[in-house]
Amino acid sequence: MADIRYLLFDLDDTLYTNASGLFNEVGGRIERWTADALGLDLAAAKSLRRRYYEQYGTTMAGLRKEHPEVDIDAYLDDVHAVDVSRYLSPDPALDAMLTSLPAPKSIFTNSITDWAERVTRQLGIRHHFEAIFDVRAVGYQSKPDPFAFEWVLQTLALPGPACVMLDDQAGYLTGATQVGMHTVLVRHGAQPTDGIDFAVDHILEAEPILQRLLAT
Asked: Cα separation of 117 and 121, whole Å?
């Protein structure tokens, strides 16, 4: 196995879970913004959001593809205008896990930097991450687009096999696999499949896997 030197973590529903209710509020804001921008009722916006996710990977990607007239930056700012402190608290166990992993780390998210900053600071783990790679940094080419992964690798000056990507979306990890990254799926009940090297129910369960990979 190649020398693994870097860890990349998704943010939403990976470093915290949807059990917090935080992303439910974001989802509601996505649907309301889409309804207002496109002149739809909420039921139609909800259906469109689901189709965009299935077809393009994110609502944002679907809007950019099918409605280039909308203001994507306004969309991103609005849907992330949530008080994360109402949902998240410091996570000492996650902090300890990240401390134990002897490799540099960054966040790679389809959200925006401001959101990732607020979430990681609320969790008490911001100091572990060298950088935040957000959707704006990669030219709005969100995961799973291989371009986004290639851009991150070029910025880090690393080959794909030197990195591990942890994400809650199997579909997003396909992009990581295409550029040679090792992959860990963080999702309850998930199993390793083609393109998914490891699967865990919760982020804390990834620690022994990452320790073994880093020791290889």
From this structure: 6
